[in-house]
Amino acid sequence: HKRSRYAYVCVISNEKYLEGAVNMAWTIRKHSKLVQDNNADMVVMLNELLHDNSVMMLSAVGWNYVKVMKTMAYLSPKSYFTYTFDKLYLFGMIEYERVMFFDADMLIIHNPDGVFETELPSEKHVGALGSEGSLYFQTGTMLIQPSRTVFEELFMEYKYGSFNYNQWRARDGILCRNYFQSRHVNIGGTSG
Asked: What is the top-level taxon of the source organism (predicted)?
């Protein structure tokens, strides 16, 4: 299977999101014409803490690629949401032109392929659900133009930024909003 320009991606931090990822694989395959025609990959990213049986099951239910990564949780052990920082790996998926990320607890109910055509002014912009011009957007659904530079800048913000990401309330959304600020394009309805 040759890699596609586009990828639908899900990030799983622990076993409790496994069922969601199984359902998501089914709904993406059901609704995405790009996936059905082998013009978009389905990638699930998970950390090294998941069981080998989980990795095999995800491959069996239709994810083209199962990528195991080292969790970034070690940088923010005090955060209740520490594993959400593994989403940073999305920005480094430079083998793709565009990555469409969905949280594992989402179901796709219609063809999402059109979102790949959303204009992002640069790699330093993100497509997300939110109000354009405002600083708030959701990170449960994002359109990303992967970039090594953006990945490195996000990682440096996470590790050394002025916001202390090693605290109870810290999570990926705060990090992404601190980095992208108003550089986001609305890919759907409004939020907030």
From this structure: Eukaryota
